[in-house]
Design a protein that fits this description.
By secondary structure, this protein is mainly alpha-helical. It has one domain: Up-down Bundle (Rhopdopsin 7-helix transmembrane proteins). The protein is 76% helix and 4% strand. It contains 10 helices and 5 strands, in the order ββααβαααββααααα. The strands form 2 sheets. Strands 3-2-5 form a 3-stranded mixed beta sheet. The protein has a two-stranded antiparallel ribbon with strand order 1-4. It is globular. It starts with 5 loop residues before the first strand and ends with a helix.
């Protein structure tokens, strides 16, 4: 590579979804409404779990943490996208891009770990109900959350450290609506072998670990449910897991679908619309899934707004 081809990076260009002027008002309205629903919906879940003493349990403690992370995930990407659409500017500074990428990696890792922690909580509640309050004590629940934060921070920091060692060459167009890690690495004109190795290693360890933990937990849960003698008992046990299973399916089907399809098709533009599902719409859907299928949450929200159960 000739030295003259390398450039000192000051900014990137986020190409987004479409350059058609007539589509910009529609996109702005769509993502603004989605973002507002995400923030207010998840805030309601957090307020319900804080204000209702009946929801001061490990399950709802983890749910409120998940809601907080979902707000942060959307806030990492959507406001910048809305600003770019409104101002017709696609520029994001190098520092802004690195910051956005860091928080997105950290928050999606946290999402992953929280889903695994919530699966473990359901496993203990259904498979070992007599030991539930002893096992899932406040100190242990706090340690689970703290451990998830620490691992996610270290993961994000290690990935960003490897990106900072890369050099880039023009053009610096990102065919995405945010600084997605794979897209940034593909723009580099220096050797990305170490980045690729670490990305696959992290995906296998931090992605596969929680996923197989969820699979293990639910295999044990299903085995326990099958031996429950009454149909009512089976229905009640499954009902407590239904919302979490739906969220798990949405998270993994959308996030894994994005990466596998982009690798298979070798099409950077194809991953941008698909990424909207797990980066924008999944955080919006989670409050609906938990509130519509959960009598405790609906009761807490009714008490919050109406002042009565």
């Amino acid at each position: 590579m000739e030295p003259g081809n390398e450039t000192k990076i000051l900014e990137f260009l986020l190409l987004g979804f479409s350059e058609e002027p007539e589509l910009q008002p529609f996109l702005f309205g769509l993502f603004l409404s989605t973002y507002l629903v995400t923030v207010f919906g998840n805030l309601l879940i957090i307020l319900a779990t804080i204000t209702d003493s009946h929801l001061h349990t490990p399950m709802y403690f983890f749910l409120s943490n998940l809601s907080f992370i979902d707000i942060c995930v959307s806030s990492t990407t959507v406001p910048k996208m809305l600003r770019n659409i409104h101002t017709q500017s696609r520029v994001i500074t190098h520092g802004g891009c690195i910051t956005q990428m860091y928080f997105f990696l950290f928050l999606t890792a946290m999402d992953d770990f929280l889903l695994a922690v919530m699966a473990y909580d359901r496993f203990v509640a259904i498979c070992h109900p007599l030991h539930y309050l002893v096992t899932m004590n406040p100190k242990f629940c706090g340690l689970l959350i703290l451990g998830s934060w620490i691992i996610s921070v270290l993961y994000s920091f290690s990935q960003i450290s490897l990106v900072l060692r890369l050099s880039f060459c023009a053009p610096l167009d990102i065919p995405h609506f945010f600084c997605e890690y794979n897209q940034i690495v593909q723009l580099a004109c220096s050797d990305t072998f170490l980045n690729d190795i670490m990305m696959y290693f992290a995906a296998g360890l931090l992605g596969g670990g929680p996923f197989f933990g969820i699979i293990f937990s639910y295999s044990k849960i299903i085995s326990s449910i099958c031996v429950i003698p009454s149909a009512l008992g089976k229905h009640k046990a499954f009902y407590t897991c239904a919302s979490h299973l739906t969220v798990v399916f949405l998270f993994y089907s959308t996030s894994l679908g994005v990466y596998f399809s982009s690798f298979a098709m070798h099409n950077a533009h194809a991953s941008a619309p698909a990424s909207v599902m797990y980066a924008v719409f999944t955080p919006m859907l989670n409050p609906f899934i938990y509130s519509l299928r959960n009598k405790d949450i609906k009761g807490a929200l009714k008490k919050l707004f109406c002042g009565k159960p």
